[in-house]
Amino acid sequence: xxxxxxxxxxxxxxxxxxxxxxxxxxxxxxxxxxxxxxxxxxxxxxxxxxxxxxxxxxxxxxxxxxxxxxxxxxxxxxxxxxxxxxxx
Length: 88
Known about the structure:
The protein is mainly alpha-helical. The chain has one domain. The radius of gyration is 15 Å and the shape is elongated.
C-alpha cells in the first residue's frame, strides 16, 4: 500500500500484514477491480486504502505530520473524528 500518500508509512511499518477472506457485494468487488486496474494497484491495496480512509487512518497520518501536535493528541483527535462520523 502507498502509506506515504496518507502519511502513515511509519504506522505501516509497525503493522504486520495478514491474509483474510471477505464476503462483499459483487458490485463492490467489480468497483475495486476497476479502480485497481486504472491505478495500477492490486485489489488488496485498493481495499486497504479504502478501509484506512473509512477508519480515519488518513486523518491520523495528516495530524502526525503536523509539527505542533504529538502522537497522543493526534490519536485522540482522530478517534474523536471517527466517532463523530458514525451514525447513531
